[in-house]
Each structure stands twice: as structure tokens, then as C-alpha cells.
Design brief:
Chain A: Keywords: Cell membrane, Membrane, Transmembrane, Transmembrane helix. The complex is a heterodimer of chains A (110) and B (208). Chain A is mainly alpha-helical and 110 residues long. Classes of the chains: A mainly alpha (110), B mainly alpha (208). The interface between A and B is large, with 56 and 62 residues.
Chain lengths: 110, 208
């Protein structure tokens, strides 16, 4: 019975508690969003300011990495309970991705 | 088994997306897909990085001469905001507030359409400048990478619209809650890929 689910009716207190938890979580999501906007702004201003590429490239790559961690762990709930297996999938994918990019930028030449 | 069993906010499970066996299976399978998509995009990024500014001798267009940041900045902000609006949609899904969820999904779709419109404008602009797909190895790699992302945006939008129309009269239940949740996950993933596109392609392209 793929769709069967047993959920006992919650008491009023329990229900109010869950609602509050969810709105608390939503506020922390808003904080993540503000941080992401801020990181994007820094990345664009760093580039517009015209510093040396050797300084800019590591900074903007780091900012991108932080932003992706926020997306995955907050917006996509990867930090929540029961996400162990799927986190393993994702890290495997990222590992292969890293090796692929590393290979192409180091051993391909013209 | 009743797919269309009615729920109230009081009886709605805490994690409706994984409350059923089918939901659990979809959840695991979908993350496996996202991991595979990560590898797909990595191969396109790797190709782009290897072929950046490469092409026939005397080629006219290079990354630093072509890309303009204001448009990319607008696209980034729009897509990032649409990621937040889909978080709002899932917040209302968990509170079993179907109307609010549909409204936030509608906003997400509108923002996604604006993003797609700007991307089409950008590509059209480049082609008119003479930077076509077959112009150089660089142009092919650029259009393939950014175009594949654009195709994902188009697919994500179609997915949202199909879900919203198909379930408009049904309301939220155990049958469609996992579907909405996965579509939102897909939308976040599209934003994750875009973070790397604006950083690696546009920002690193402008500085040369």
C-alpha cells in the first residue's frame, strides 16, 4: 500500500509547536537567502573593482562554494535527518565532478 | 488505499514528502538523479574551461570582450529570488496551505520565465553580433553549457506549471506532496548550477 500513512490527530499544543518550529525554520531560510544575496554582491563588486585575477579567482570560487553549501544544506534540507544516503550520492557526484574539471583544466592543451 | 484521502493541517504529517513508501522511493531516486546531473554539468564545465577563448586563428570573440555583467547580475538575482519563493511554497506545503503554496509557486514560475526571457535575449544579442554556435570551439562550449542550463530552467518551469494545473482542484494529499517537493528540489539544483555558471563563465570570463 504505497500511499498508506497512519497519522494520529495531534493535540492542539503539539500542532501549535510544529507550526512554530516551521516558522522558525522559515526565518532561518530567510537569513540564508540574505547571506546568499550578500555573497553574490561581493563577488560582482570584487570583479568590477578590477583587482588582480590571481586574487579575484580564488575569492569568487570560495564565495560560490559557500553559496552552494547554503543552497544544499538549507534550501534543499541536506542537513536534515534521513538525508545520509542522498548526501552520499551527492558527494560522490561532486567528487567525480571535481576530478573531471581538474583533468580538463590540467591535461588538455592546444 | 486511498490516494485522495483528505487531510487537515492537524492530520497532515510532519514530513509529507517522505511519509509514504512511494514518497521515500522518489526522494532517494531523485537525489540520485541530481548527483548524476552534477556529473553531467561537470563535464560541460570542464569542456568549457578547456576550450575557453580557443578557436580558429584570428577569431573575433573572446570571453572578456563579449560578456556584460549588468544583465548577468539581474539574471542571478532573479534566479536566486525564485529559489527563495519556492522555499516559501514548500513552507506552505508543510503547513498544508494549498492556496498559499500555489501562489508562491506561481511567483516562482513568473521569475523563472523572466530569467529565461533574459537568457534568450542574451543569446539572440550574441548571435546578432556574429557570435554563433559554430563560430569557434569557445562559442560551441559556451552555448552548450549555458544552453543546457537554460533547457533545465525550461523543464523546471514546465514541471511546476504541469503540477499546478494538474492538482489545481485536487488540493494537497499524500499523492502529490512528494511531487511538489521534488520539483522544488529540482529548482534549487538549477540555482546551484547557475551559481557556478555566473562565477566560472561570466565573472571569470570578464577578468580574462
Amino acid at each position: 500500500m504505497a500511499h498508506d500513512v497512519h497519522t494520529p490527530t495531534r493535540s492542539h499544543t503539539e500542532y501549535e509547536y510544529l507550526r512554530r518550529q516551521r516558522s522558525k525554520e522559515m526565518r532561518s531560510q530567510l537569513t540564508s537567502f540574505a547571506i546568499m544575496i550578500f555573497l553574490t554582491l561581493i563577488a560582482f563588486t570584487t570583479v568590477s573593482a578590477g583587482f588582480s585575477p590571481y586574487l579575484i579567482v580564488p575569492i569568487i570560487l570560495l564565495l560560490a562554494a559557500i553559496q552552494v553549501v547554503l543552497q544544499l544544506y538549507h534550501f534543499m534540507h541536506l542537513s536534515n535527518k534521513g538525508h545520509g544516503t542522498v548526501a552520499f550520492f551527492m558527494f560522490s557526484g561532486m567528487f567525480v565532478a571535481f576530478i573531471t574539471v581538474l583533468t580538463f583544466v590540467t591535461i588538455v592543451w592546444w | 488505499m486511498d490516494l485522495n484521502k483528505k487531510y487537515t493541517p492537524q492530520t497532515w504529517p510532519d514530513h509529507p514528502e517522505t511519509a509514504t513508501l512511494e514518497g521515500k522511493n522518489k526522494f532517494v531516486g531523485f537525489w540520485l538523479l541530481l548527483a548524476a546531473e552534477t556529473v553531467t554539468f561537470a563535464s560541460l564545465f570542464a569542456t568549457y574551461l578547456a576550450l575557453k577563448d580557443k578557436g580558429p586563428s584570428g577569431m573575433e570573440f573572446t570571453a572578456s570582450g563579449l560578456f556584460e555583467l549588468p544583465l548577468v547580475f539581474a539574471m542571478t538575482m532573479i534566479l536566486l529570488t525564485s529559489s527563495l519563493t519556492s522555499v516559501y511554497a514548500m513552507y506552505h506545503m508543510k503547513n498544508h496551505n494549498f492556496k498559499a503554496m500555489q501562489a508562491w509557486l506561481g511567483i516562482t514560475v513568473l521569475l523563472g520565465l523572466v530569467f529565461l526571457g533574459l537568457e534568450i535575449y542574451e543569446f539572440n544579442h550574441y548571435v546578432h553580433l556574429g557570435f554563433g554556435y559554430t563560430n569557434s570551439a569557445f562559442s560551441s562550449a559556451f552555448y552548450t553549457l549555458v544552453g543546457t542550463h537554460g533547457a533545465h530552467v525550461l523543464f523546471g518551469l514546465s514541471w511546476f506549471i504541469a503540477l499546478m494545473l494538474r492538482n489545481a482542484k485536487r488540493g494537497l494529499n499524500m499523492y502529490n506532496a512528494p511531487k511538489f517537493y521534488l520539483a522544488a528540489l529540482y529548482w534549487h539544483f538549477i540555482d546551484v548550477v547557475w551559481v557556478f555558471i555566473f562565477t566560472v563563465v561570466y565573472l571569470m570570463g570578464v577578468i580574462g
